[in-house]
Amino acid sequence: MARRALITGITGQDGSYLAEHLLNEGYQVWGLIRGQANPRKLRVSRLASELSFVDGDLMDQSSLVSAVETVQPEEVYNLGAISFVPMSWQQPELVTEINGMGVLRMLEAIRMVSGLHHSRNGGTQIRFYQASSSEMFGKAFETPQRESTPFHPRSPYGVAKAYGHFITKNYRESFGMYAVSGMLFNHESPRRGAEFVTRKISLAVARIKQGYQDKLHLGNLDAVRDWGFAGDYVRAMHLMLQQPECGDYVIGTGQMHSVRDAVRIAFTHVGLNWEDHVVVDPALVRPAEVEVLCADPAVAKNQLGWEPTVDFPQLMQMMVDCDLLQVTREREYADLMPASGW
Ligand code: NAP
Ligand code: G4F
């Protein structure tokens, strides 16, 4: 019988890549879908037509219990979250509810359905992956950051993720659950939301190259991140749940680049000079910035045998190439539409 996996956040960037990866591994894959007629469900169904769906929301405990009961999964991947950091200053309570309390609700759903009541009875067959974040390291105590680096989150998003990390560890220690926290550094792809800096850059470069836009407004160009390819990172999530003992892992490339580097690589790829187009907008600078993040992925490499396959220049160039095609398609479609009245 095929193993069953339940993914929250299946309509997001990582959810779509993970679903495809698990289907390739022979799993029966279920996605938790929130809201009425969620339009992103259609997009992910097109990517992988063999998916199954179950309704639920990380804000709603009973819906999670019902989803786990319906699916009877061997593995649960909790990727659902509000993932855009600036939104966590605008709606801190909502972000804390979904990204922090949502983790507790999913752990409770697994505990209830598995009948785990006593400390460390270790009886559950359901393995749990929590999508933790390098944002927890925040104003980092050391560079590169590893599994033992203390947290100093700089946003309500990072604080909520730190809660999710510790409650995952706590359910492991309290109930003997197989519960893993993956501390993933930034990972991108052509499926990345347009609000994140790499995709904002690749889309703008494609539009500027084709003459539909002239300027790109950005915030802090000096921020440094360890950016990898999302398709590589979902392999690490799956590997984490296949280990004999569960633990927590840092996943990243170990390479640092600034936002300015990202801009330079993307514009140069289409033969443009970034300085002619980029405008620094102080309104886009964050109330408390995370200046530098860089992973030490040695444990993942040694214990999981995981390594990234796409480097940063390749990633930016892949994103620009996809957006050049997308912008062309959008313009062709727009040209077919009547100018007004519809
Ligand atoms: P994403 O593209 O923004 O996707 C977020 C997903 O969460 C969407 O499917 C969204 O579904 C779902 N969601 C939002 N609110 C929900 C709720 N109340 N109940 C259930 N689902 C809800 O994010 P991503 O880049 O794939 O990231 C996946 C996870 O990894 C997130 O938890 C993120 O915080 C974490 N993470 C990401 C990175 C990165 O660089 N990408 C790094 C570290 C950690 P709807 O369609 O319903 O909106
Ligand atoms: O692309 P970003 O918005 O990603 P950020 O804030 O690092 O968060 C992402 O990675 C985290 C893992 O570390 C995830 F947990 C989180 O869910 C998300 O996926 O911004 C990257 C950097 C920041 O320092 C930001 O200040 O780019 C800087 N930046 C400069 N100008 C900008 C812009 N970011 C955005 N989004 N838009 C700008 O115009």
What do you see in this structure?
The protein starts with a strand and ends in a 6-residue tail after the last helix. It has a seven-stranded parallel beta sheet, sandwiched between helices. A two-stranded parallel ribbon has the order 7-10. Helix 2 (39-47) links the parallel strand 2 and strand 3. The mean pLDDT is 95. It is built from eleven helices and 13 strands. The chain has 342 residues and is an alpha/beta fold. Helices cover 43% and strands 15% of the residues. Helix 5 (92-114) packs parallel to helix 6 (156-175). The chain folds into two domains: 4-190 and 228-251, Rossmann fold (3-Layer(aba) Sandwich), CATH 3.40.50.720; 197-223 and 256-292 and 310-331, Alpha-Beta Complex (UDP-galactose 4-epimerase, domain 1). The chain binds NADP nicotinamide-adenine-dinucleotide phosphate and ligand G4F. Ligand G4F binds at residues 83, 85, 133-135, 185-186, 195-197, 200, 218-220, 223, 225, 259, 284, 286, 289-290, 293.
